[in-house]
Design goal:
The structure is a homodimer of 192-residue chains. Chain A has 192 residues and is mainly α. Helices cover 73% and strands 0% of the residues of chain A. The first copy, chain A, contains nine helices and no strands. The longest helix of chain A is centred in the last third of the chain and has 22 residues. The first copy, chain A, is elongated, with a radius of gyration of 20 Å. Chains A and B meet through helix 6, helix 8 and helix 9 of A and helix 6, helix 8 and helix 9 of B. Chain A binds a DNA duplex (30 and 30 nucleotides) through helix 2 and helix 3.
DNA sequence: GGGCAAAGCTACAGTACTGTAGCTTTCATG
DNA sequence: CATGAAAGCTACAGTACTGTAGCTTTGCCC
């Protein structure tokens, strides 16, 4: 009885898990959330399905784990850059946030691409998930700016700036976006 | 040999087609783009699959047809409200656009919900599709405002306002959003 | 009230993916 | 080297959805 396939190189569980989650991210970016399933991930890792099942219960668990990891890492990228109430120089604080965020997107494009894609993606659960993340920022912005709607609008522009940075990095360079966000912020603050 | 199911009431092809497309919209809104498939649509229409196949070649054709219809209707809702180059009162023109758009969203919530959801949805094809629609507005705004980045930002805020109108109609009423958009527009124009 | 065009149905073969039980290989360690 | 824990594999049964061929019912029209 001939072997159907050679044994894949062995890998420590933690490492394998990371690899599989990396693959999920690639799949989302390349073919959309809908393309993520146990079989596809296994194939891309050049491994059989039971290997994936050793780490994740099913497709949902896999996607959830991916979101968990990326959400945590994304928040870590922005930690210490979110303006706090009681700030003495709002413009400077937001400038720092804009700068940090634009760098974060540029430094982990796969991650942010997936986040933007999942934002309004196939399953309502994951949609809500990203919304929760955004709501957190709206709350923090609102606390600082004393204006919920303004906070929403600011986040919308910030979000869009990140997307532009990803999609057209040449047309929309870091400095251009940053300058534009600063200008916008100043203009907005002037109206309230 | 017992019938498995009663015959569904007959329907003229054009009418049936519309019904099926309505169902697609509901499915997208309730369970996401990923939940749309021939079988689900047939079941919800209380009809067998061959009936659906009489109107659409496959799942992609079905989704494409839905997007076609909704895109066309959405654009129709906004026709005559998009500012044109050479305007003498930009603020008034944009005010009219904001007003029209907010009304459009409120009047066809299923449609716009689907558009927002599909915006970054499962398959890259449909993602690109909505992006094309947005690009069109960016182009038109840019032509009027002489500033591409500003056009992007304005669309982002407008888009977000529509989402807020849908998601929290009570907190974000028509007048509040409209006023805020007007203010934002004035502030932005002042900076360029 | 009989005929017939077409809307609708059944049934079947096919594909893709899911989960799991149980066997096989690998390789770190003595 | 030999051994055993565990990483990986095969194989199979099961589910959901796809498309299509060919039969059945409906209801309009004369």
């Amino acid at each position: 009885m001939p072997r159907k396939r050679p044994y894949a190189a062995r890998m420590a569980p933690e490492q394998r898990r990371e690899q599989l989650l990396d693959i999920v991210l690639e799949l989302i970016g390349s073919y959309g959330v809908g393309s993520v399933n146990i079989d596809a991930v296994a194939r891309r890792a050049d491994v059989t399905r039971p290997v994936v099942y050793n780490h994740f219960a099913d497709r949902d668990d896999l996607l959830r784990a991916s979101l968990d990891r990326e959400e945590q890492r994304a928040l870590a990228q922005l930690a210490d850059a979110v303006p706090q109430p009681g700030s003495t120089d709002l413009a400077a604080d937001f400038h720092h946030l804009f700068d940090t965020y634009l760098h974060a997107v540029a430094e982990a494009p796969l991650r942010w691409r997936a986040i933007f894609l999942v934002a309004d993606s196939s399953t309502p659960e994951f949609h809500r998930r990203v919304e929760r993340g955004r709501a957190r920022f709206v709350r923090e912005f609102g606390a600082v700016l004393h204006d919920t709607l303004l906070a929403h609008q600011l986040l919308a522009v910030l979000w869009e700036s990140g997307r532009l940075r990803l999609i057209s990095p040449d047309e929309f360079g870091h400095d251009r976006l940053l300058h534009s966000l600063d200008t916008l912020f100043t203009a907005l603050k002037g109206t309230r």
